[in-house]
């Protein structure tokens, strides 16, 4: 039996599917990768797959190449994977998502007469996978809402991972504004780095003041200051003007999974 393979069409179709898979993983794993890296990873994965088909890799080496080398290169290039555990999780989720999308698209393929509907179904299936994953996380009780936050102060900015915490109800007794808690060690390291770079001046240092707080462990006072603005990146960018930031007395996350605890009032922004 004779087959004709159009390598350009094969590349484009796999490029779209690989990029879509990376977009899903980026959203699920919160890898903070940008569009350029995701499309670069999709292009690399599709290109390597086409190369393997053209060269004609035999037997077991084909399995190793396609499902080991190609998948790994695509994940490392397309996502900002920093640890071995994160890579293993991304690798497993890559094939779970591929099986899920493949099964759904196979079920609907007889009813899709146009290629645009086929690709539209792929996008819809990817969106459904993300929703199902979030639902499973919430049901299992393992979902901690985290997001990336950028703090702006005197033309300087610092990017941190933040925890959306319903338990942080701290407010300034003077203005009534909500207060988010920044990790003490992270703030000091940021200041030291700025001092080394010569970008910290005395007249640009934030004006600190103290407010009382109450927690499970007891009561005390905490230093707070007001910054120019704050950008919360979760389901789009949400800007908060002149928020109050408090400096924690100790480390807020032992594993350094986040450096900021957002106030409860920001959960529904």
Instruction: Compute the number of helices.
Output: 6
Counting copies of identical and different chains, the oligomeric state is single chain
How many structural domains are formed by the residues? 2
Shape: elongated
Q: What's the arrangement of strands in the largest beta sheet?
A: 4-5-8-3-9-2-1-6-7
Radius of gyration: 24 Å
What is the helix/strand order? HHHHHEEEHEEEEEE
GO molecular function: aspartic-type endopeptidase activity
InterPro entries: SpoIIGA
GO biological process, one term: proteolysis
Keywords: Membrane, Transmembrane, Transmembrane helix
Structure description:
It is elongated and about 80 Å long. β6 (229-233) and β7 (237-241) form a beta hairpin. Helices cover 48% and strands 20% of the residues. The protein has two domains: 7-140; 146-266, Cathepsin D, subunit A, domain 1 (Beta Barrel), CATH 2.40.70. By secondary structure, it is of the alpha+beta class. It has helices at residues 7-29, 35-55, 59-78, 84-108, 115-140, 184-196, and strands at residues 146-153, 156-164, 179-182, 209-215, 218-226, 229-233, 237-241, 244-247, 260-262. α1 crosses α2 (35-55). It contains six helices and nine strands; from the N terminus they run αααααβββαββββββ. Strands 4-5-8-3-9-2-1-6-7 form a nine-stranded mixed beta sheet. The model has no long low-confidence stretch (mean pLDDT 80).
């Amino acid at each position: 039996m004779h087959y004709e393979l159009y390598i350009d069409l094969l590349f484009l179709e796999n490029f779209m599917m690989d990029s879509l898979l990376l977009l899903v993983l980026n959203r699920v794993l919160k890898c903070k990768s940008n569009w350029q890296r995701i499309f670069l990873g999709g292009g690399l994965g599709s290109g390597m797959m086409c190369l393997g088909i053209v060269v004609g890799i035999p037997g077991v080496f084909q399995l190793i190449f396609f499902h080991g080398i190609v998948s790994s290169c695509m994940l490392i290039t397309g996502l900002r994977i920093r640890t071995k555990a994160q890579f293993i999780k991304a690798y497993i989720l890559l094939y779970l998502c591929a099986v899920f999308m493949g099964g759904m698209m196979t079920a609907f393929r007889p009813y899709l007469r146009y290629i645009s509907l086929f690709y539209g179904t792929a996008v819809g299936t990817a969106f459904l996978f993300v929703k199902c994953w979030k639902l499973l996380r919430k049901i299992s009780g393992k979902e901690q809402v985290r997001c990336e936050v950028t703090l702006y102060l005197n033309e300087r900015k610092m990017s941190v991972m933040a925890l959306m915490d319903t338990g942080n109800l701290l407010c300034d007794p003077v203005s009534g504004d909500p207060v988010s808690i920044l990790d003490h060690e992270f703030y000091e390291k940021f200041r030291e780095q700025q001092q080394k770079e010569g970008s910290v001046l005395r007249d640009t240092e934030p004006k600190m003041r103290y407010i009382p707080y109450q927690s499970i462990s007891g009561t005390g006072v905490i230093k707070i200051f007001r910054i120019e603005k704050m950008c919360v990146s979760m389901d789009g960018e949400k800007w908060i003007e002149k928020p109050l930031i408090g400096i924690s007395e100790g480390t807020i996350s032992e594993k350094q999974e986040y450096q900021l605890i957002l106030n409860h009032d920001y959960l529904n922004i």
